[in-house]
Amino acid sequence: MTIEVVAAIIRKGDRIFATQRGYGDWKDYWEFPGGKVEASEAPEDALLREIREELDAEIIIDRFLCTVEWDYPKFHLSMRCYICSLLTEALHLNEHEASRWLSSHELGTVNWLPADHQLLPLLEQELDKRCLVTQ
Q1: Are 16 and 119 contacting, i.e. CB atoms less than 8 angstroms apart?
Q2: d(C-alpha 61, C-alpha 83), whole Å
Q3: Helix (H), strand (E), coil (C) string for 61-104
Q4: Residue pLDDT, tens place only, 76-124
C-alpha cells in the first residue's frame, strides 16, 4: 500500500522549520509538516490545506524540491517535498508537541522520521548555498 503525502520545507533565512510528532507509532520523531493528499486533490493544494490545519499558517510554495520514496514496515511512503516561505509569522502547533527552527549545522540534532532524514544532505546544501549567496 502506498500513501501519498506532501511536506513543506519552510525556510526563513538560513533556517528550516521542523516539527515533533505528538502521536502514533512514530511519536516524538521529527518531521517536516504536511500530510496526506486527498483523492482528486492537487499536491500543492493538499500542502496549503495541511499547513493551515496543522499550523494555522499561510505559506507560499516557492518550488518543488524532490520526491522521497520510503518503505516503512506497514506501508510505502511517496512524499513530495516543497521549499516554502511563510506569509504570516505566527505558527500554532495544532498536532505537534514541539517545533524548532534549525540551521544546516543543527539538522542532525533531532531524531528524524526515516523518510524525512533522507532530505538532510540536500537541505544542508540548500541552506549553505543560500548563505553563500546572501553574504
Answers
A1: no
A2: 6
A3: EEEEEEEEEEECCCCEEEEEEEEEEECCCCCCCCCEEEEEEECC
A4: 999 999 999 999 888 999 999 999 999 999 999 999 999 999 999 999 8
Query: What are the residue boundaries of the structural domains of the chain, listed by start?
Result: 2-134
What residues contact residue 48 under an 8 Å CB cut-off, 6+ apart?
58, 59, 61
Q: How many other CB atoms are there within 10 angstroms of residue 93's CB atom?
A: 15
Asked whether 81 and 10 are in contact (CB, 8 A), the reply is no
Q: How many CB atoms lie within 10 A of CB 121?
A: 10
- Integer CA distances (angstroms), 123 to 30, 42, 73, 105, in order: 15, 24, 26, 10
In the 8-state DSSP scheme, what is residue 105?
A: T
Does the reported pTM lie above 0.85? yes
Quickly name the fold that domain 2-134 has. Answer: Nucleoside Triphosphate Pyrophosphohydrolase (3.90.79)
Q: Distance between CA 128 and CA 13 in Å, rounded?
A: 11
